[in-house]
Specification:
binds magnesium ion; 281 residues; binds ligand C2E; alpha/beta; Diguanylate cyclase; 47% helix
Length: 281
């Protein structure tokens, strides 16, 4: 009987796998086409100084203007791009778009900003990536100090030594290295001293319950104190309320980002300065 059941289960899985494989191939083809058809777009979310209230930069967040599904968010296609290897091509597109955006702003005499671009682990193990970035900075006449890369603790762990070397090279060039979603990975604060880190981004999950959860408050205060001792700046993600802003500022958190000031907006909108809703903080 067990054998019979097992057989049924097997056929059930194969049926399901057929559908999944079909869908996967379709999505993979969509992804490849989308790069060619220019369906991707970088949106920009302002990052601000918690003490001066000034916007000093932005995080580039990718969006897919899908011909059928409409505006599609990265959680729906970045994992697929990573699993199929398409992330290398897409990553090239992302980095070039971001740097060319900085170049355009510079040409037009707009205020200098710092742009943070998210990297995936596959990019960190691509030995040609450093020279790719160097060429783009030259091509668009952008100083390395205007650029930052956001990486997660887990993405470094794939090949720690290679990733460390690459990040060190980037930091030596003047590029800011930020640890994204800090506090959600397995690594500890102690590991930071082994990495060339400029900025820590405290994960939104700690900021969310700041007002109610005393433990989260203590964790954030400890992270900030530790980071500052190591000469690392701290940015809090996902600030949605005035209370959170004020509390984080009182903890001496350096920077912030979140819907309280603005979600990610198009380049045009960011250029016009419209994302900043004028809360009087
Ligand atoms: P992330 O890098 O941690 O980006 C922060 C995410 O939180 C963004 O979602 C942003 O829109 C959202 N967010 C910002 N402020 C708030 C807030 O106040 N409240 C709430 N509820 N959410 C907020 P998004 O754009 O959907 O991106 C999701 C993730 O996809 C990113 O997380 C990042 O890991 C990845 N991603 C986005 N763009 C890229 C990219 O260009 N390359 C790579 N490799 N990954 C990307
Ligand atoms: Mg990020
Ligand atoms: Mg994050
Ligand atoms: Mg994230």
């Amino acid at each position: 009987q067990a054998k019979h059941q097992g057989k049924n289960q097997f056929s059930f899985y194969t049926e399901k796998m057929k559908i999944n494989t079909y869908e996967l191939i379709k999505e993979e083809e969509d992804l490849a086409k989308a790069i060619k058809n220019n369906e991707f777009e970088l949106y920009y979310q302002p990052q601000f100084d918690l003490h001066t209230n000034q916007v000093f930069g932005a995080e580039a967040l990718i969006r897919w203007n899908h011909p059928e599904k409409g505006l599609t968010f990265p959680d729906h296609f970045i994992p697929l791009a990573e699993n199929t290897g398409k992330i290398i091509e897409l990553g090239h597109w992302i980095v070039e778009s971001g740097i060319s955006y900085l170049g355009k702003r510079k040409k037009q005499g707009m205020p200098e900003i710092m742009l943070h671009i998210n990297l995936s682990s596959k990019q960190l193990s691509d030995p040609t990536f450093v020279s790719f970035v160097q060429k783009l900075l030259l091509k668009y006449d952008v100083p390395a100090t205007s650029l930052g890369f956001e990486i997660t603790e887990t993405s470094i762990l794939e090949d720690v030594e290679l990733a460390k070397k690459m990040l060190q090279t980037f930091q030596n060039m003047g590029i800011c290295i930020a640890i994204d979603d800090f506090g959600t990975g397995y690594s500890s604060l102690a590991q930071l001293k082994n990495l060339p880190v400029t900025l820590l981004k405290i994960d939104r999950s700690f900021v969310m319950d700041l007002e109610e959860d005393e433990d989260d408050r203590k964790i954030i205060e400890a992270i900030i104190a530790m980071a500052h001792k190591l000469n690392i700046k701290v940015l809090a993600e996902g600030i949605e309320t005035r209370e959170q802003w004020i509390m984080l500022e009182s903890f001496n958190c350096d920077f912030g980002q979140g819907y309280y000031v603005s979600k990610a907006v198009t380049a045009d909108k960011f250029n016009r300065g419209l994302p900043i809703t004028h809360h009087d903080i």
